[in-house]
Structures are given as C-alpha cells and as structure tokens.
Design goal:
The complex is a heterodimer of chains A (about 300) and B (about 450).
Chain A lengths: L5 H6 L1 H10 L1 H28 L2 E2 L7 E2 L3 H8 L1 H34 L4 H13 L2 H11 L6 H8 L14 H26 L3 H9 L4 H12 L1 H15 L4 H7 L10 H11 L3 H29 L1
Antiparallel strand pairs in A: 1-2
Helix pairs in contact in A: 3-15, 4-15, 5-9, 5-12, 5-14, 6-9, 7-13, 9-12, 9-13, 12-15, 14-15
Chain B lengths: L1 H24 L23 E8 L5 H17 L3 E7 L6 H9 L6 E5 H9 L21 H4 L3 E2 L2 E2 L1 E7 L2 E5 H6 L11 H12 L6 E4 L6 H12 L17 H16 L11 H9 L3 E6 L1 H10 L7 E5 L5 E3 L1 E7 L5 H16 L8 H6 L16 H12 L9 H6 L4 E3 L5 H17 L5 H17 L2
Parallel strand pairs in B: 1-2, 8-9, 11-13
Antiparallel strand pairs in B: 3-12, 4-5, 6-12, 7-9, 7-10
C-alpha cells in the first residue's frame, strides 16, 4: 500500500479521494474502535475535566465553582495519605511486578522442555476475572485459616496479619497485583527475548559466559527499549490501582491502603461529590500524562 | 506541520465535546419540578398518569414478586387512571448505580432508599419536596415523628418510610447453647457481652465471639450506632462540632480493644464490611454482632442461616438508637400528579394495616417468614397496635427469639445520622480499624485526631 505525502495530495486533488476509497475497509474497521474509544474514554475524559470545575447533583443546572473542588480535596486529610500510598504502591509494584515477570521470562526462555505448558501456567492468572483473583487472595490472606499463614506455619514462621496491619497491607496488595499481571508481562518479555539472535548467546557460551553474564551483557541491552516501555506502562497502570483496596481492605487499616483512585470513588459514589472526584481524577491524569508523554517519546524513538 | 494540524483538530474536537457536555449539563429541570417551587399547574383531576416505582422484588424471589404484582393489579383497578411501571433490582439501591441512574435520567419516579442515604439525597437536592401532597397518604400523619424525621429537612418532607427499626444485638442462639450460655437470657450489659464473646470464642478455632465492622465506612457507621446506644453523640446539637471524643466514644473503643486483644474473642481477621459479618453469621461461626432483625432476615434469605438459630435483643445499656430502615423518595423531576399517584401507591402498599406489606395472613399463606419486628412505623398509634396484633397472629418465625428486642427497645428513642454522614464515617473508620488491628492503638490520640478532622470537615460547610 503506498501513501501519499501532503505535498502530493495538494498537487493532485483527486489523490486524496482515491487514497480514501482505497483504504475504505481499513477506515471501516478503524471506526468501530474510534467510536468505542470516543464513548468510553474520550467523552468521559472531557466530561470529567469539566466536572472538576463544577458542582452538580444531576438534577438541576450545574454550577461553575472554579477551583473549589480542588480546594476541597486538597484540604481532605486523606489526600496526602492517598498520594503517598499510591506512590509507595507504584514503587513496590515496580520492584516486584516489573522484575519478577522479567526473571520468569528469562528462566522460561532458558528452558529446553515444557516451555509451552509453563507459559500457559504463568498466563493463567490473567484469564481470571480481576474480582475473582482478588477475592481468592482474600482467602489466602486470612490470618486464621488462610493459605499463606498455613504455609508459614509449616516452616515454623509465626502468622502474619497481612491485610490487617498498616505495615503489611500495602505490600500485600502489591503481591496480588503482581500475581494478576504476571502473565502478560512475562509473555511480552519472552517475545522480546526470543527476538534476540541466538548467535549472540552461542558466542557468549563459547566464551564461557554463565547465565548471569549472558543476561547482563546480552539480554538486558537487547531488550532495553521494551524494558523501558514496560516500565512506563507499568507506572501508568499501577498508579490507577483501585480494585485491590476496594475489594480487599476498604482503604484500611487506618487509611493505609487508600489510593488516589479509591479516594476518587469515595468522593463520587460514597459522598456524592462528583466535582471532588473529578478534581482528583484530573490531578491523577496530569501526573500520568507526564509518564504517558515519555512513553510516547520512547515508543517513537524505538520505531 | 502535520502534528500542528492534528493538534488543532484535537483541540476543536475537545472544545466541541466540551460544549456538547456543557449543553447537556445545563439543561434545566422541567418547570413541573415541585422542588423548584412547586408552582407548576397540576393536570386535570384523575388525568392518566404513569409512575415508575423501584424495588419490585426480583424474579429470584418469586413469591414476593407475585405479591407485588397482585398489589399493583389491585391498585390499578382501584385507581384506573394510574399506571405503575415496576422496576426490579437486587439490591434495590447501590451507591454506584444511584448517581449513574440520576445522571442518565433513568432514576425511577419513586425510588427506594436506605435511611443512611436519605439526608445526603435531600442535601444534594436530588429528591422532590412532597410536603404539599401528603394528604394523598392519610396514614402518613400517624407515623412516629422521630421516624418521619429521617426524611425531613427545613420543615419539609422528602420521603416516606417503609420499614423502621432500632439497632440491637443479633446473636446466634445455637452457639450460645453450645458455649453453655442461656439463649433466652441474652446479654444486658457490655460486660455480659464480653463474657459471652469469650466463651463462644473458646469453642475452638474459627469461632468468633463478637464481630464488628471497620472498613469501607461501615466502621464509622457502627461506631455511631454504638455511641448513640451509650447516650453519646457524633456531632454537637447545632451540628457544627464533633462530639464523639467523649466518655461514651472512649468506652466504645475501649470495649472493642478489650474483646479484641485482652480476650481474643473477635477473631484475628478484621476490616470487615457488611457482607463479611453476614457471611460469618450465616456460617454459624459468629456469636454476636450489632444489628437489627433485618440482619436475621438477610442471613436467612441470602446467607443460608436458619431463623430458629438466631435471636435479637436490645443493644446493652441503650437509651437511644440510630434509626435503621428504608423508604421511598420521589425523583426531583417528578410532576405533582406523579407525586400524588406515588403517595397513593405508598399508602396502599406500605402504610395501610392489613394490606400490602402488612398483609401478614397472605405472607403466612405464601410461606414467607412472618413475625419479625421490622416495621415499627407507628409506635403506640392505632395502626401500630393493629399491625402488631396481625403480625403476632400470623407469625411463623419463632417470635419469642425477638421478644427481648421488642421489650428492650420500647423505651429507646431514635436518633438521626449526623450531617455529612458518609464523610464522617470514612474518618471514623480509622479509629475503629486501628483498635481492631493494632494492639498498641492509643484511643485518646485516635479520637482526638478524628475529632480534628471532623471539625475541619464540618467547618468547610
């Protein structure tokens, strides 16, 4: 398929029409996605932006309130906790959720047998609906009959409070999140690893390089770009963490797991303050835009 | 060049969407909106009118649904100009869908609410003022003033209660027996609750003597129930200052601390929310929890518990109670004729002794649980006495299991939720969860910190 430059189109008025008719099928397929994105992403984003400067009860006319919603959420004692918790969650999710899938991918890539089965097993958690996966962990974390404490008991370690302690609650949520997203990350890394020419490894092996050296000198440099892209995507995704605190801890104990997205939910649906929820959403979006812009830049450089 | 064009296009598209969104938002409510003045002309007498009504029982409750449908048919035969469009949902209201239904124009003309949501809905202007039309429901005047108060604000009425009950103590009679306690003599003091909880927890692994909420705003809600029962308050009389950093507030938390850490009778798992304790009660491993007869109904209907295993008594040492129950409110956009028709329906279905929800003979014949003391709408007024007689006559659940509750709550006065209830409950979740999850929690510091936050919240207006 040939593409016409802007200059060509200006010089040949019929060229644009021909180009459009040639790509009509493609536009048809594209329109479905565009409509979906418009209705479920872009229009809500615009509405949310507007809402953050308004007061509404969805009955009477809306009222423009300037920055009042922002002042309300900035004055909320949970505001700082929510951002700190979100930042810690993101950081921990990077430490665990970013490295673990990479390690899994490297190990899977090194395996000579049963790679297909193991890939399936690693990917299985992704197929579970998130709510089911989270509720499964609710049982794992039960301080009494939960699987984790039973396992700790077998090796003589005293039981942990997991979700019921301010120190372990947030890391416990990170473990859930890591487990749920492990499969996707692993498969993406695996695909990247398998695109590395095998000659490089063979040469390294001939030179006597062990696994660690091969990873350090070949794997990481060869997958540098995908690692960076995944890092940025991970930050954008984990900063929006909601389902884990919503289903497992309700923001507790002592606000230890209140995240920005959870606080947004509280404002909008528990307090009926959609303006406050919108203001929080806009703040989060601005932070994420920075990372997204960086991601786009990296993606563009890569191509 | 091209990227500038794309940026321009996006900007134009964004502005167009923004304008469209503004246009939708700014559409004024119809002139007939009575809450906006109530000056709209009513249609001719007995002109055809259609109202949508929420909380029709779902298909999974076939007997209750059949009763509802039969009542609708009978009502429409009596008032041929009124058409009822029933809308089923289970549960009847969830916060997430409530706001979405309003935003999407899908809210019923007559919608169902829990007491705990009423003040917020009134404050947000999301319900119609029905004061001028209350004569359409003659029994409304006989409802207890403290019950009507749930739906009142500024001297105006915004809703009609359907059920009403005081908060009590729900307990598992079977576990009481198993632990060597007399189920016919439930605890009357908090010391007795503590003692009973210890004995039940002593039955073995997995048994919990006393369960309590502490997450998702439910901890704050039950802190409110507990402090009210001890004669305390959440906010001052004028509603401008926090009032829970008091002897009663400290007693609530100290009592929980003792049971959780000294006696280890509250289980190791905490951060419970509504469904968690229901499930534990239904599984037969939980001894006691704060609740009302509706808990027993929910445990029986949805969590596989059996009526005969449960009893309810008044909250120990209680003098007042947080109002519990549900009712109906009108969409702020409902027309005067719809409000009048809706009030007639409420009178027919939910307020008249001997019919609708009070047709206990029909309930019994249909095999539905009958006899739970759930609807204390009228107190000692005439309809109340008749309802109680009918209920007792047709009872098919062991009413003696609820006798301590009925007796113990007779002298209890109802107290409304504080202003900004959900925001305050969210703040009070912190001291509740702290006491239940941290052995070294400092109650004085926790209450002082929560007090400061609530004062700030109330001062913000």
């Amino acid at each position: 398929m040939t593409t016409l430059s802007a200059k060509d189109r200006r010089q040949h008025p019929g060229a644009l029409r021909r180009s459009v008719s040639r790509n009509l099928t493609a536009y048809g397929f594209l329109s479905g996605a565009l409509i979906c994105f418009a209705f479920f992403s872009w229009i809500p984003m615009v509405r949310e932006f507007i809402l953050s400067f308004q007061k509404t009860n969805f009955v009477n006319s809306t009222e423009w309130v300037g920055l009042e919603n922002f002042r309300t959420v900035l004055d909320d004692p949970a505001f700082i906790s929510a951002w700190v918790n979100t930042a810690i969650f993101t950081l921990l999710a990077l430490v665990f959720g970013y490295i673990v899938p990479f390690v899994f991918a490297v190990v899977l890539n090194e395996l000579r047998h049963a790679q297909g089965y193991l890939r399936l097993i690693v990917y299985l958690p992704v197929m579970l609906p998130p709510a089911v996966a989270v509720l499964l962990f609710k049982w794992f974390y039960d301080p009494g009959a939960g699987l984790f404490n039973q396992a700790l008991g077998v090796v003589g370690i005293p039981p942990l409070s997991w979700l019921d302690s301010t120190t372990t609650a947030l890391p416990s949520l990170v473990i859930v999140s890591t487990w749920m997203n492990l499969g996707t990350g692993t498969l993406i890394y695996l695909a990247a690893l398998q695109s590395i020419p095998s000659e490089l490894y063979e040469a390294a092996e001939l030179d006597g390089a062990g696994l660690f050296k091969r990873v350090w000198h070949i794997t990481i440099p060869q997958t540098r770009l995908i690692l960076l892209v995944m890092l940025l995507l991970q930050i954008v995704a984990t900063m929006q963490v909601f389902i884990e605190p919503f289903l497992l801890t309700g923001g507790g104990p002592e606000n230890a797991t209140v995240t920005v997205a959870y606080l947004m939910y509280q404002y909008a649906f528990s307090f009926g303050n959609f303006g406050g929820g919108g203001a929080l959403g806009l703040m989060l979006m601005l932070v994420l835009i920075v990372f997204s812009a960086f991601y786009l830049r990296v993606s563009r450089d890569r191509t | 060049m091209q990227s500038r064009k794309i940026a321009t296009l996006l900007a134009v598209a964004g502005l167009t969407l923004a304008a469209a969104a503004c246009g939708t938002e700014d559409t004024p409510a119809p002139a007939a909106n009575p809450s906006a003045g109530g000056s709209a002309p009513a249609a001719a007498e007995n002109a055809p009118v259609t109202i949508s009504v929420g909380c029709q029982p779902p298909k999974t409750n076939p007997k209750e649904r059949a009763q509802w449908d039969a009542d609708v048919t009978a009502f429409q035969a009596k008032f041929p100009y009124i058409t009822i469009e029933s809308k089923d949902a289970f549960p009847c209201i969830v916060p997430e869908t409530f706001q979405a239904k309003l935003a999407g124009g899908q809210m019923e003309d007559l919608f169902y609410v829990y007491y705990t949501d009423a003040a917020r809905i009134i404050g947000a202007g999301q319900a119609a003022d029905i004061t001028p039309y209350l004569s359409e429901a003659p029994h409304f005047a006989e409802i207890r003033p403290d019950v009507k108060g749930v739906f009142e604000s500024g001297g105006k009425t915004y809703g009609v209660p359907r059920t009403n009950y005081a908060t009590g103590l729900v307990y598992n009679r079977a576990l009481f027996t198993q632990a060597g306690l007399n189920p016919d003599m439930p605890p009357k003091t908090w010391a007795e609750v503590q003692d009973a909880a210890k004995k039940i927890a002593g039955l073995g692994n997995g048994y919990v003597g006393f369960g309590e909420y502490s997450a998702g705003n439910t901890g704050g809600w039950h802190f409110t129930s507990s402090i009210y029962a001890r004669g305390g308050a959440i906010v001052s009389e004028d509603g401008k200052m926090a009032a829970f950093n008091s002897e009663q507030g400290k007693a609530v938390l100290e009592n929980l601390r003792k049971m959780r850490w000294d006696d280890n009778s509250m289980g190791t798992k905490q951060l419970h929310r509504w469904e968690d304790l229901m499930r534990m009660m239904g599984s037969g491993k939980l001894g006691m929890m704060i609740g009302a007869p509706d808990v027993v109904q929910a445990v029986n209907n949805d969590f596989k518990g059996k009526f005969e295993d449960y009893g309810v008594t008044a909250l120990p040492e209680s003098t007042q109670s947080l109002s519990g129950g549900d009712g109906y409110m009108f969409n702020a956009k409902a027309t005067p004729d719809q409000i009048k028709a809706g009030l007639k329906w409420l009178e027919f279905k939910f307020l008249t002794p001997g019919q609708g929800q009070f047709d206990y003979a029909r309930n019994k014949a249909d095999g539905l649980p009958t006899g739970l003391p759930l609807t204390d709408l009228y107190g000692s007024a005439a309809p109340g006495a008749q309802i109680q007689t009918d209920r007792e006559t047709n009872a098919n659940v062991p009413t003696e299991h609820f006798a301590p509750y009925v007796e113990g709550t007779k002298s209890v006065t109802f107290k409304l939720e504080p202003p900004k209830a959900q925001e305050i409950y969210a703040i009070l979740d912190t001291p509740m969860s702290a006491v239940l999850t941290r052995q070294d929690a400092n109650i004085d510091e926790l209450l002082a910190d929560a007090e400061e936050k609530v004062n700030k919240l109330l001062a913000a207006g």
